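Repro:
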Amino acid sequence: MDATKKPLPLVFGNNEPIPTEVSNKPISELDPWERKVRFIGAIQADDMVTVKAILNENYSNGRFQPEESYTPSEQISAICMAIEKGNLEMVQLMIDHGCSVNHYTSGFSPLHYAATYGQPEIIKLLLKEGADLNALSCHGNNALQLAAQTKSLEAVQLLIDAGSNIEKANANGQTPLAIACINNRLETVEFLLRLGADVNTTDNRGNTPLLHSIDQCLTINHQLVKILLDAGANPDHMNDNGDLALVTAIRRASETNLDGQYAIKELIDHNCALDKVEVGFLKQNAIHVAISRSQDRIIEMLIRAGCDLDIMGIEGYTPLERLVMADNYNMVNLLLNAGAKPELSKKAIEKLSRFRGEERYPLQLLIADWRGRVHSLKHLCRLKFRRYMGRQCGNVIRNHLFMPASPEILTLQLFNLLSKKAAVV
């Protein structure tokens, strides 16, 4: 060690410093406890010279085995400590001195540690030395399932090349693909899908990788959602709790974070059912959840995609009635323009009266005015066109109306498109 550098503090157990007299004693004069303390400190400091000297001393005298657990608080063996540090040379040294590559400490083998920490070179070494590829940890995970949690695609590839089964599920019923989705490991997900991993596999609670990708991370990764949907993920699968991907995405989306909205767009573009009702405790559907969370952008996305504008919620109100109660003028106007029935039920009017008294609410006046209005042929045609095109209507608007062109050209393009549709029908 460089004399100008201050040596790293050696610790044992609960980060208690190793006494100076222990760290300075010759190895041959240390008692068994002092030797273990010195050994742990040397591993933590990547001090190969001291580790090798202690191993040589004890290997010749048989004082203790290198796979013993050395930290009372964590019960971790020497080789696993070296794996945590990512010290390949030290791991090899342990093996050369008789350390077992399949010895468990605290329910984990050395290979489990290497997979958990995403250490491909150490994984390669352990497999070469005979590590059990299919051994399970105390939590029911094998090495591949542990590696799928990490950023190391190389570790995943090594374990699969060694013969690990990509469809093997852990104690929770989660395959490596599901685990990679839970941990937002995009590269690993793509790799497993290329190998043919089942994109619609379910765990013990009925969750698919798609549901995991939407419900697990701090935010929704819309790229991951798209990859799974493009690979054939079922957007309408319902888990054992009755949760749906679309409704779950709306619950987790934010008006300020666009990832959730992009994920919802992907689900809509992959033809998810817009009006399917969850069978869980709340029994809600997409538009009612969006209204309850004041997600105006998502409400508009659902309307443009062709959702049922008059579908009843669990409380017995239509989307229009709920938006009126929420004073959401813009969305009420949008809903009416999209073709919602301009009606308020007796139940809704009574609820409004309890809050507003006998005075008619401005939005009630708007609805009454809309109901009595004679609408233009243009508006009626637009409604008919939207109902006919369904969720394709948004694509038509993007591809044919949002482009620089004269009104005459736009009208002609739209007319030609409608003519082709009519010919098919």
